Each structure stands twice: as C-alpha cells, then as structure tokens.
Amino acid sequence: MFNKNIKLVLAVASIALAVWQFFENEIGNGIMFILLAGIFVLLYFKNEIIVLAFLRLRKQDFPGAQKWLAKIKNPEGALVTKQQGYYYYLQGLMVSQDNMTLAEKHFKKALTLGLSMSSDLAMAKLNLAGIAMTKNRKREAQALLKEAEAHDKHNMLGEQLKMMKENMKRAGNQPKRQYGQPTSARAGRRQR
After folding, report:
1. What pLDDT score does 184 carry?
2. Whole-prediction pTM value?
3. Which of 58, 101, 157, 179 is the most buried if burial means most Cβ atoms within 10 Å?
4. What is the rounded distance in angstroms from the CA atom of residue 164 to the CA atom of residue 126?
C-alpha cells in the first residue's frame, strides 16, 4: 500500500510523462500514461486495502478482512478522511461480536469522520442502537434507531430495524428489577 501523498506524486508524474509523450508524437504511450494517472487518482480516493477488506467481509471471512485491515498501520497518515471513516466502520463491524465498548468507539469515530453511503450510515447507527440498548440506554437507542431508519432509503435493513424495534418493545414491557430481590420474590408480592 502506498501512502496517499505518494499516489498523488505518481499521478502527477504520469500526467507529466503523458504530456511529454504527446509532444514526442507517441499518442498511444501518452494515453497509457493518462490511464495510469487515472488509476493512481482512483486509488487515492478508494483505498485498495479497504476495498479488499470489504470483499472479504462480503464473503463473511472476518479473519481475512482483519488481516487486510492490519496492513494499514497508521490510518490517519495513510488514508483520506472518508477512508478513515470506513476503516473504523470495518473495525467496528469486526469487533462488534466480541467487545461492544470498542465497537461503539469505532462506530462513533467512523460517524465523526464520515461515511459516504447512506446504507453504511444506517448500519453504523443500527449497530450503535443495539449497543446502547444492551447497555440499557433506551432513549439513545430509540434516537439512533430513528436516524438509522431515516438513512435506510432503499429499505436494505428493514428486517433488522423491525427486529430491533420489537426487542425494544419487549425490553420496555419487562418490569423494572429492584436490586437485592430475586425475581421470584417480586412475582410473589404481586400475586398477594
């Protein structure tokens, strides 16, 4: 993986070579260098490592995706802002099953840095809502769930949103526990 600044230098050098080839009447070589510059510019905005990690995630290969993401040593220096957002988004998806606190931190950082697709925003907010709900922060979970619904324009997360709402309703219907009393003692008191 090249640093983002190296990619820009290579793009500028390729354009300079293309101009030189055009002046030398080597039109084919000039076109090839312009295409090469286009590839470097594309890789500046779409990091190849993040794309490969997304492909691994699509196949449900979490260890493979983690291996690709581990190749990015310094995300702040190597990636532009949106790519950093996706880096932390992917990290959050990977650790969401094991460490909810770390996943919450990654998702919040990804939202702060920005995600370009509304479906990714919806997924990050849905995950944050689930984490907030498990940590018993119902109002925050409801707000995040509404935001996730607003970002899910193509109804890709419809089933997950519906399940999350049902889980929130079930959690809201459960009686509040009083600390120090077992569940059966509270039930016995209500029957009297």
Report:
1. 46
2. 0.75
3. 157
4. 8
